[in-house]
Amino acid sequence: MEKKYNKSVRFTDTTDEKFGKIAEKLGRSKQDLLAEMVDYFYKSKKDPADLSDEILKKELGQGINRIISFIKVQEKDILAPMLAEQKIQMEQIQGLGTEFEAFLRCFRKEKCGVNLLAWLLK
Fold first, then answer.
1. Alpha-carbon distance 47 to 31, whole Å?
2. Does residue 80 or residue 45 have the better pLDDT?
3. CA distance 40 to 55
4. Which of 13, 35, 59, 86 is such that its CA lies 20 to 30 A from the CA of 47?
5. At a CB cut-off of 8 Å and minimum separation 6, what does 26 contact?
6. How far apart are CA 84 and CA 110, in angstroms?
7. Which residues contact 79 (CB under 8 A, 6 or more apart)?
8. List of residues 6+ apart from 19 with CB closer than 8 A
9. Which residues contact 11 (CB under 8 A, 6 or more apart)?
């Protein structure tokens, strides 16, 4: 089905020249390109006069803030408790190491006998 064009747009020769170059570069007719441009700006809600794209910067900034907030929550809820548990486990392992060293010293001195049995039962 052929598209029906029944509206016109007036612009300067300079604008027409730039518009023609863009259409040629993209391999589209000026009519198709204009329709795509209107769709793009309609859907993206961008302002073509806003060359620095402040809206996009604002949206990106909000996205970054959401990511940072998510990471902070993960750190508080998951990472901090894991590190605390790891610290406790390391202290327990060091305590076991100290007790094992004491056991080995006792065993090497061969003074174990009853003392060793008492030490094991404590």
1. 21
2. 80
3. 15
4. 13
5. 33
6. 40
7. none
8. 11, 30, 33, 34
9. 19
Pull the structure tokens for residue 14: 């300079």
Closest by CA to 34, choosing from 60, 5, 68, is 5
Quick: pLDDT tens for 25-77: 999 999 999 999 999 989 988 878 877 777 778 878 888 888 999 999 999 89
| Residue 94 DSSP label | H
Q: Which residue has the tokens 């003074």?
A: 111
AA letter at 104: L
Both tokens of residue 65?
A: 């803030």
In angstroms, the CA 120 to CA 103 distance is: 9
Whole-number Cα distances in Å, 70 to 40, 62, 83: 31, 12, 19
Residue 95: count of CB within 10 angstroms of its CB: 10
Residue 86 and residue 93 in contact, taking contact as beta carbons nearer than 8 Å: no
Q: At 56, list the tokens.
A: 């996009």
DSSP letter (8 states) at residue 36 = H
